């Protein structure tokens, strides 16, 4: 179907409504009507009716005192509806737990994630134990270019897809180790693709490192990434090469077989 013909079927109100929901994040948990209108680049009149509809459907709540909007737990139903159609999180959980337990001496957490645009989204997790544990919540989004699992997922994308993802956009520097040049990132992605795994050290947070391995679907396309996370002081190169990486690659291979790819 041609682009012009597709545009005829676009439901602008639905598109704008979903766009409003994506405006809320960890840094901006509440937004006013004026802020929402500004972010959308429209007058206040247009989003008012959409906000009323989203509120009546239960996806948004407006504070009566501040008049600011916030997401409600009902939004989770959208994500859980997707997760319920994907068997991998359920299948992978015992394997994530096993990796976490077998590498307990390193204090690792183990995660399963997928790529969504410029972000990785976590769809399963085995939390590390201890007060200083490094854990994530299901549904958390992190910038792909600054994480081992994100770089791994990017490494198996076609160049056209990468250009589309990062078209006219900058790579945010989260630490001094974060890749901020797309050319440099692409060189790193080539190495990751050749090696079949990815490592990040202090690119997202100082003192934190991660190792990731790929999971492929039945067509041989990358579907998800499994990774472990711990502190820089816990892992050394010898432990990574002889203990952590072999365990991670073996588990990724088993999960790939569940996806129907051998």
Automatic annotation (TrEMBL):
<comment type="function">
    <text>May be an activator protein for the gylABX operon.</text>
</comment>
<dbReference type="InterPro" id="IPR029016">
    <property type="entry name" value="GAF-like_dom_sf"/>
</dbReference>
<dbReference type="InterPro" id="IPR036390">
    <property type="entry name" value="WH_DNA-bd_sf"/>
</dbReference>
<dbReference type="Pfam" id="PF09339">
    <property type="entry name" value="HTH_IclR"/>
</dbReference>
<keyword id="KW-0238">DNA-binding</keyword>
<dbReference type="GO" id="GO:0003677">
    <property type="term" value="F:DNA binding"/>
</dbReference>
<dbReference type="Pfam" id="PF01614">
    <property type="entry name" value="IclR_C"/>
</dbReference>
<dbReference type="InterPro" id="IPR050707">
    <property type="entry name" value="HTH_MetabolicPath_Reg"/>
</dbReference>
<protein>
    <recommendedName>
        <fullName>Glycerol operon regulatory protein</fullName>
    </recommendedName>
</protein>
<dbReference type="InterPro" id="IPR014757">
    <property type="entry name" value="Tscrpt_reg_IclR_C"/>
</dbReference>
<keyword id="KW-0805">Transcription regulation</keyword>
<feature type="domain" description="HTH iclR-type">
    <location>
        <begin position="11"/>
        <end position="73"/>
    </location>
</feature>
<dbReference type="GO" id="GO:0045892">
    <property type="term" value="P:negative regulation of DNA-templated transcription"/>
</dbReference>
<keyword id="KW-0804">Transcription</keyword>
<dbReference type="GO" id="GO:0003700">
    <property type="term" value="F:DNA-binding transcription factor activity"/>
</dbReference>
<dbReference type="InterPro" id="IPR005471">
    <property type="entry name" value="Tscrpt_reg_IclR_N"/>
</dbReference>
<dbReference type="InterPro" id="IPR036388">
    <property type="entry name" value="WH-like_DNA-bd_sf"/>
</dbReference>
<feature type="domain" description="IclR-ED">
    <location>
        <begin position="74"/>
        <end position="261"/>
    </location>
</feature>
């Amino acid at each position: 179907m041609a682009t012009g013909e597709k545009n005829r079927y676009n439901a602008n109100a639905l598109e704008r409504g979903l766009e409003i929901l994506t405006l809320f994040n960890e840094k901006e948990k509440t937004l006013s009507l004026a802020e929402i209108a500004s972010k959308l680049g429209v007058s206040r009149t247009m989003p008012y009716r959409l906000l009323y509809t989203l509120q009546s459907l239960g996806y948004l709540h407006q504070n009566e005192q501040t008049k600011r909007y916030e997401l409600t737990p009902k939004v989770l139903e959208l994500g859980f509806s997707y997760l319920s159609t994907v068997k991998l999180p359920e299948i992978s959980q015992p394997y994530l737990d096993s990796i976490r337990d077998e590498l307990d001496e390193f204090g690792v957490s183990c995660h399963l994630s997928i790529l969504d645009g410029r972000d990785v989204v976590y769809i399963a997790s085995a939390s590390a134990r201890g007060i200083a544990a490094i854990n994530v919540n299901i549904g958390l989004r992190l910038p792909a270019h600054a994480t081992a699992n994100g770089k791994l997922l990017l490494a198996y994308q076609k160049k056209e897809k990468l250009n589309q993802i990062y078209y006219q956009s900058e790579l945010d520097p989260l630490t001094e180790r974060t890749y901020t040049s797309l050319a440099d990132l692409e060189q790193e992605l080539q190495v990751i693709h050749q090696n079949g795994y990815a490592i990040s050290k202090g690119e997202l947070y100082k003192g934190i490192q991660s190792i990731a391995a790929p999971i492929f679907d039945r067509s041989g396309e990358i579907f998800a990434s499994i990774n472990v996370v711990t502190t820089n002081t816990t892992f050394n190169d010898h432990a990574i090469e002889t203990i952590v990486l072999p365990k991670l690659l073996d588990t990724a291979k088993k999960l790939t077989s569940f996806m129907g790819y051998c």
